[in-house]
Amino acid sequence: MTATQINLNGRLTKDPKVDTTGKYPVVYFTLAVAPRYYDEKAGEWKEKQAQFYLCADRRKGNAATARLLRKGMPIKIEGQTSQAVKQDANGNDVREVIININEIDIDLRNIEYLMPQLQEALEQEQISTVAQETPPEPISAEQELYARPPLPTDWPDPAQPGQSHML
Questions:
Q1: CA atoms of 33 and 73, how far apart (whole Å)
Q2: What's the domain count of the chain?
Q3: Which residues does the annotated region (Disordered) include (predicted)?
Q4: Which of 29, 98, 108, 145 is buried deepest, with most CB atoms within 10 A?
C-alpha cells in the first residue's frame, strides 16, 4: 500500500507531546484545519467546520519541534498518511489516520507565537541571542561594485616558464 502525500495549513490544538517509549522519540500533535470560503451573498470570508489531524514527527532532531511548537501556532505540514489500530475503552479496535511529518513550516506572518518559544529554546540550549560584534560600516554602491577579494597567492604565475596555467 502506498502512502498518500498531504499538505495542510492549520493551527495546533495543544502543545506537542513527546513519546519516548520506543527506540526513538516521536513528537505527536493535533492540527486543526478550518477551510475558508468566500460567501458571495454575505460578501465575506467564512470558515467551514474544523477538521482535526493527528501528526507524528519521527524525523531526526525532532526535539526542536517539541520545543518550538505551541498551542494555537499556525503551521504548514507536509507528510504521508498512515493508519494505526488502537483499542478504545471498550476493547474495540479503532483505526486512526496519522500524518507522518516530512516537513514543518512555521507561518512567520504570525511570529508573535514563535518568539517566546524561540527565546525559551535558546535559553535551554544556552545560546546567546545577542551578537557581541559591532555591525560593519555600510559601503556605497560604487565601493561594492569595485570591491573584489584578493587573488589567491598559490596560483601559478603565467610569466614563469614551465608552470601550468591549468588549475
A1: 12
A2: 1
A3: 127-167
A4: 29
